[in-house]
Amino acid sequence: MKLTGAQALIKSLEREGVEVLFGLPGGAILPVYDPIIDSSIRHILVRHEQGAGHAAEGYAQVTGRPGVAMVTSGPGATNIVTALADAYMDSVPIVVITGQVATTSIGTDAFQEVDTTGITASVTKHNWLITDANDISRIVAEAFHVATTGRPGPVLIDFPKDVANATIDYEEPGELELPGYRVASAPDERSVAAAVELIAAAERPVLYVGGGVIKADAAKELAHFVGLTGIPVTTTLMARGAYPDAEALHLGMPGMHGAFAAVTAIQRCDLLISFGARFDDRVTGRVEDFAKGAKVIHVDIDRAEIGKVRRPEVGIVADCRLAISALNEQIAKNSAAQSRDRIATWVERCLDWKQRFPFTYEGAGTAAPGDIGRIKPQFVVEELRRLTPPETILVAGVGQHQMWAAQHWGFVDPRSWVNSGGLGTMGFAVPAAIGAKVGCPSKMVWAVDGDGCFQMTAQELVTASSERIPVKIAILNNAYLGMVRQWQHMFYEQRYSEVYLSPDLPDYVKWAEAMGCVGLRVTDPKDVAAAIEQANAVNDRPVVVDFRTDSMEHVFPMVPAGASNDEILVHPSQADQPR
Amino acid sequence: MTNLTAQTRHHLVTARVENKAGVLLRVAGLFSRRGYNIISLAVAPTDDPAFSRISIVVDVESNLLQQVIDQLDKLINVVAITELDPEEATQAELLLATLARSVEHDADLGVLIQSAGASIVEMTDQATTIQLVAEPTVLDDFEEKLRSYGISELQRTGAVALPRLVQL
């Protein structure tokens, strides 16, 4: 079959099962936009290429399928670098296709030419520059394979204009040419046995569950593991939803703004069992003081994560689902590993911490937190949770609002939480929410965003309006770059340098309306619930709710950067509690 | 260069990589991004033109070496990677040096060249270019001795290596 390179590319994407492309055309990618008209693939026209990348990430995180973005060369490519870096940090499978100047022009500083593969080499799992149109179908197949297998991650295909315009005899991809790519899958039996031995002997074990459990679709296996062993659970920022928050043994999120019980249990455990987590500095605090007395079992599909930060007693390089299954199988035959007696005192202690140090704020839990006059941001998150269906997808940007969302939303299911963890990309929420809604159109999608974040990528709401993607955005508008302000408050003698944003410049309601959304504003705590319900009722367009929240609110607990997790600062109202 | 600490920090890593555009960038970029120090790097195609061999002498603490290897191994174009224990590897490196004097007028230099097994590549009345192929540590010593003769140019290739043959 004779096809142009552009047609071969689109055909290859169709062959991979791609249903949606997030993109923005331009000169070098122009030939590829022509066959899109005839394709079954839905194209969503973003307003900025970064938005295409984050939308692809949101899509991938909620569906488990790769998100695909397509942009042009030069600035199109550089604009999507942030999203690639974000996806790389959080192991999100996205496939980005960038236009490129003709191969004959590469290296001549042609119009809109940049060294895309060079620029993105360090923020992609792999990238390809296609120089021969006959390679298109094979390279597309390789790209999807690499993005979605092993430790998932972003890949990029750089697609020169003359390759797009070439005519070829299209052939289905044959064998992939990836001689250097090996994927770990099943765990090594001896390591599993060694891990079970440690579990059977531990008196103070705790689980440290990371995003790998969600990526591996291992939530069921994890629940079974906890059922078998009775070991308390912590879920990292990337793993919220991997284990239901409502479960008694769930101590919450560890880390810099984690739950006191989760942080402290990890510090004092004698066995730390890590499933698909990477000992990130936001979790460990000062590494030398992290879980000092503990032995470590580390399960990760990426061999390079084993021992990168902390040398484990037992390292298991495997897919989390297979590894946890294998552990469960052995534990089921090992009564010592299932014994509740040995760990009873410890579990009781953990649950006592959990009970005495919940996430809290002034007025928390009262029927009328409105009595204090200001809207507490945490209260908005709790009301959102209360008033939305259990399967609602929550998306967040980066900063205080993200932490409050992670803390106060009661997570039920995996893949119901989308946020920028490793890279900390402000502006992530709006485009990621769009991608999530496109991926799961039947679920309600709320983004909790900060006013600083919202201003970075709000233009994608134009995309959402025109494409009829009814996402809902709750801006926790505290008129500040709040997390930076909090650090300046705590560590820079309250010298607030360049963090004030103003609550009403821009006017978020007018801005929302100008972008085709419903815009609402809430200034009184008593009106929070009604506004959420009003937003929930809108199904034909996006909604933006401008919640004017308390600027003075800080995120607690907090482990100061570089400090030991033992130095965790709790909410002032809990400061007198014995630890 | 030959002191003990330097030796324990220097590790010879050899990688079989796909012979494709951009592979060197990926390898070099990985070292730069993760803060690993390259002492030398040599790359050339193998007998199979689809693959190249990269020999890298890397300066890291021994306990970091596994991390360097694991990270390199993740590169899609890296097919195989091993650390070669100096005891179990044949290493060689080439040194070219131009000295600002003629060996004809300097008997000592002639003796040094001969005793080291180096050869004269080019010679004029004012200068001599010599070459020596040897293990890197031998080259270190030789380079040191050459200094007193006034080195005007010097270029080393970096070590290349293969596993030592096992006697059956």
Topology:
The complex is a heterodimer of chains A (579) and B (168).
Chain A: E1 2-4, H1 5-15, E2 20-23, H2 30-36, E3 42-45, H3 49-63, E4 67-71, H4 75-79, H5 81-89, E5 94-100, H6 116-120, E6 126-129, H7 136-148, E7 155-160, H8 161-165, E8 167-169, H9 189-201, E9 205-209, H10 211-215, H11 219-229, E10 233-235, E11 250-252, H12 260-268, E12 271-275, H13 281-284, E13 295-300, E14 314-317, H14 320-332, H15 335-338, H16 341-356, H17 377-387, E15 393-396, H18 400-408, E16 417-418, H19 429-439, E17 445-450, H20 451-457, H21 460-466, E18 472-477, H22 482-491, H23 508-514, E19 518-522, H24 528-536, E20 543-548
Parallel strand pairs in A: 2-3, 2-4, 4-5, 5-7, 6-7, 9-10, 9-12, 10-11, 12-13, 13-14, 15-16, 15-17, 17-18, 18-20, 19-20
Antiparallel strand pairs in A: 1-8
Chain B: H1 4-9, E1 10-18, H2 23-34, E2 37-45, E3 51-59, H3 62-74, E4 78-84, E5 89-99, H4 107-116, E6 119-123, E7 128-134, H5 136-146, E8 151-156, E9 160-163
Antiparallel strand pairs in B: 1-3, 1-4, 2-3, 5-7, 5-8, 5-9, 6-7
Biggest sheet strand line-up of chain A: 3-2-4-5-7-6
Any idea what the CATH superfamily of the largest domain in chain B is called?
ACT domain
Number of domains of chain A: 3
Note the gap between the termini of chain B: 35 Å
CATH architect. name of the largest domain in chain B? 2-Layer Sandwich
Major beta-sheet overview of chain B: 5 strands, antiparallel
Q: What portion of residues of chain A belong to β-strands?
A: 15-25%
| Helix segment tally of chain A | 24
Number of helices of chain B: 5
CATH superfamily of the largest domain in chain A: Thiamin diphosphate (ThDP)-binding fold, Pyr/PP domains
Most extensive protein-chain contact, per-chain counts: A-B, 18 and 21 residues
Q: Based on the structure given, which CATH architecture of the largest domain in chain A is correct?
A: 3-Layer(aba) Sandwich
Helix percent of chain A reads 25-40%
Structural category of chain B is alpha+beta
